[in-house]
Amino acid sequence: MISESPSLVAWSLSEPEPTGIESFLERYAAHVTFYGSGKAALYDGLAGFVEPDSNVLLPAYLPDAVAEPFHELGLEPRYYRLQSDLSPDLADVERRLDDETAAAVSVDYFGFPQPGFDSFSALVSEYDCYLIDDNAHAPLSVADGMLLGTRGDLGVTSLWKLLPIPDGAILYCNDETVAERFEPSSIAGVRDQLGTTDCRFALKSFVAELLDRNATLRQSVDELVAGRGPSVPDPRARYESGKTQMSKLSAYVIEDADPTAIRDARRENYRTWLAILEDCPDVDACYDSLPAGICPQVVPVRANDPQRFLADLEDCGVGAHTWPRLSETVVADPGYEVTKRLAREIVVLPVHQHIEPSSIESVGARLRR
Ligand SMILES: Cc1ncc(COP(=O)(O)O)c(C=O)c1O
Known about the structure:
It is a single chain. This protein has a domain of about 160 residues: Aspartate Aminotransferase, domain 2 (3-Layer(aba) Sandwich), CATH 3.40.640.10. The relative contact order is 0.18. By secondary structure, it is of the alpha/beta class. The chain contains 16 helices and 13 strands. The chain has a seven-stranded mixed sheet, sandwiched between helices. Strands 10-11-13-12 form a four-stranded antiparallel sheet. Helix 6 links the parallel strand 4 and strand 5. The structure holds pyridoxal-5'-phosphate. Pyridoxal-5'-phosphate binds next to helix 3.
């Protein structure tokens, strides 16, 4: 069984290497503030800087809930088109920028720098607006000596996508003037005490680990809950539930995690998948090289028949899915055909630090059959 996320139980059984994620990040970023979620960090980071009734440019290939903090700030989300290599369609960006644009967001998808970032940044800098470097996917990725998330005026990253923790994200204030003027609200920082969310998360991790290790038990539970799977909450509810400080349990795991070991493990797993994908003619990796410094969140691949590929992966016990659920505005507009195709065809494969490369290799052997 290859699960989609790393496990709190596996983390607790590993040898402690108290190097800590925070000190790693602080080597690259001067102004770091913790939050419960990336969306909360986006809200708080922009709150003191933008006026209602202005607009924000977001890439169309984005989960629907990410627009929620901007809605709350009174900004109109304007989705710009992407090319199929995930770079911004600059002509479309230019059409949507105007004097009322308060901010423009670039996304480092899956832990890789967004292709075309420099041209996007140069275009946006012609307007008096903030550039936000959204690196929600991979907190430890470094490209050309810069930590992803630290390239705009503001940046965010989601720690819970990297570690087995109930929540956790960071706001980077990269521009000195922004850092001086930034005033964190009551949702910034780390909670003083462990709460019920921490206990619930720990219990869920324990049960998930138990099920992963016991196929018969998992089958019985799967049968029991068949047809009653958890539905994804609506965008507003997802935003509201993450509008908190970061939990104490998260802070504890972050302090104890070893960034080098995590990055090395994820990179090795990424390369193992790449070797397997060479023998899968109907599936292409979105990024077929792994530059130094990149700590991948997942392996994104484009599948000719995504549903069949997902079914094959499920048969091999691999937790994988397409990404993301797009906003209704994008879905309803025929102008976003490239983005909609990306959302249909891109399947993300897990590479997290608690997967052994040998398990990926055995999946490869089964897929080749
Ligand atoms: C590109 C991107 N930005 C921002 C976010 C928001 O992060 P969080 O879920 O920590 O609020 C997500 C979440 O999936 C995301 O994919």
